[in-house]
């Protein structure tokens, strides 16, 4: 029986190699490429039975590529599968352009992709035992990803001056997003869920900033820089084994504005973190007597007692000497930053809020706290 030919298009060499090896193990003839232009040439030279592609490329537009494939008579009906992605709007656009299926996100992306390929081509499905084997990646592959992590993160850091420029350098912003996205995809394959949670949240933030660069400001730039530094600090097995699922953590949100509280709690829920709220300093202190949050988000402009004074009071309680406290302020001046430090705060995030930034900020301090000695 003639092997089915698959054209695999992915921007990241490591992930392309992993998908290709797993597909070839199932008996497919796989050609891989990292460029959409090269993919077009490959299609012209030999029509594939099926296309698989990621949706993030440094050069080229994958949704437009899908639409162009559909316009060609030889590939008008060729199945096109989109690899699992958290980018829901891009997946929807890909389907609208003619993709056959956007493979749902799962904890077993390779196995889910192979199952989707078999189903799409009308081939027998794999049994659960083999599915479980496909879901696993080798220890060597995990080691290779982690050994190259610092190099990848340093490439991300090199983009920071470009996105901090006035105006920001948009090609550099896109490059940073593609680098973070590729790292997040690789993290999803590793047996360390907190790393996948953190890298995934940062990837979504970078996508948001790449789409709307006007959201770049001192607060978001600080959050991105901190996130990359933290990512570098946990990119080894010993540190990763000390982290636990973000859903095990809890954040206290102290803000007198209901809309702000609801927005922050929504951001935390989106990041997979539980939270509770207090509308005043008195209610915050009451809550602190009954539970011990892992992180506190604290508004500066509170009634009765401002956030700086409340922070100082919280620090007098032995149980909260080291609890990360992040100030929420629309007055991100040097004076307020100094006050934040003097009153015992760890960090700040500026208004107006970016929902995804709040999630990354919370995850940074939540996981940092887990690494602190007891």
Describe the protein.
By secondary structure, this protein is α/β, with parallel strands linked by helices. The protein folds into three domains: 131 residues, 3-Layer(aba) Sandwich (Rossmann fold), CATH 3.40.50.2300; 100 residues, HPT domain (Four Helix Bundle (Hemerythrin (Met), subunit A), Up-down Bundle), CATH 1.20.120; 128 residues, Rossmann fold. The protein has 18 helices and ten strands. The protein has a five-stranded parallel sheet with strand order 2-1-3-4-5, sandwiched between helices. The longest helix has 19 residues. It starts with a strand and ends with a helix.
What top-tier CATH class of the largest domain fits best?
Alpha Beta
CATH topology name of the largest domain: Rossmann fold
How does CATH name the architecture of the largest domain?
3-Layer(aba) Sandwich
Low-pLDDT runs: none
- Envelope shape: elongated
Q: Helical element count?
A: 18
In short:
With 374 residues, the chain is α/β, with parallel strands linked by helices. 54% of the residues lie in helices and 11% in strands.
SSE layout and pairing:
Blueprint: E1 5-9, H1 13-25, E2 29-33, H2 36-45, E3 50-53, H3 62-71, E4 80-82, H4 88-97, E5 101-102, H5 109-120, H6 128-135, H7 139-147, H8 149-157, H9 160-164, H10 170-187, H11 193-211, H12 218-233, H13 237-240, E6 250-254, H14 258-270, E7 274-278, H15 281-290, E8 295-299, H16 307-315, E9 325-329, H17 334-342, E10 347-350, H18 355-371
Parallel strand pairs: 1-2, 1-3, 3-4, 4-5, 6-7, 6-8, 8-9, 9-10
Helix pairs in contact: 3-4, 5-6, 8-10, 8-12, 10-11, 11-18, 12-18, 14-18
């Amino acid at each position: 029986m003639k092997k089915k030919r698959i054209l695999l298009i992915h921007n990241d060499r490591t992930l392309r190699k992993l998908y290709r090896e797993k597909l070839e193990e199932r008996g497919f003839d796989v050609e891989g490429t990292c460029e959409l232009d090269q993919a077009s040439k490959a299609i012209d030279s030999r029509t594939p039975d099926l296309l698989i592609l990621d949706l993030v490329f440094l050069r080229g537009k994958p949704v437009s590529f899908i639409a162009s494939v559909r316009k060609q008579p030889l590939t008008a009906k060729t199945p096109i599968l989109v690899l699992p992605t958290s980018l829901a709007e891009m997946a929807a656009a890909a389907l609208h352009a003619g993709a056959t299926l956007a493979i749902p996100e799962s904890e077993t992306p390779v196995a889910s992709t192979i199952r989707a390929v078999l189903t799409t081509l009308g081939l027998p499905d794999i049994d659960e035992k083999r599915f479980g084997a496909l879901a696993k990646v080798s220890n060597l592959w995990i080691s290779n990803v982690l050994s190259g992590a610092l190099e990848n993160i340093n490439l991300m850091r090199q983009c920071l001056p470009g996105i901090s420029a006035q105006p920001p350098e948009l090609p550099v912003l896109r490059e940073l997003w593609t680098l973070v996205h590729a790292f997040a995809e690789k993290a999803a394959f590793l047996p360390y869920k907190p790393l996948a949670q953190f890298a995934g949240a940062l990837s979504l933030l970078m996508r948001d900033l790449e789409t709307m660069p006007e959201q770049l400001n001192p607060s978001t730039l600080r959050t991105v820089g901190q996130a990359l530094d933290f990512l570098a600090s946990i990119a080894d097995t010993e540190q990763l084994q000390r982290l636990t699922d973000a859903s095990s953590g809890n954040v206290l949100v102290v803000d007198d504005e209901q809309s702000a509280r609801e927005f922050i709690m929504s951001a935390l829920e989106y990041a997979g973190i539980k939270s509770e709220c207090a509308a005043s300093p008195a209610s915050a202190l009451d809550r602190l007597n009954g539970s011990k949050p892992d992180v506190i988000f604290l508004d500066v402009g509170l009634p009765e007692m401002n956030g700086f004074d409340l922070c100082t009071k919280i620090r007098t309680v032995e149980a909260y000497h080291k609890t990360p406290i992040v100030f929420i302020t629309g007055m991100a001046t040097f004076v307020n930053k100094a006050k934040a430090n003097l009153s015992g705060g760890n960090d700040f995030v500026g208004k107006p809020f970016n929902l995804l930034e709040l999630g990354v900020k919370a995850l940074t301090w939540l996981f940092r706290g887990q690494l602190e000695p007891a």
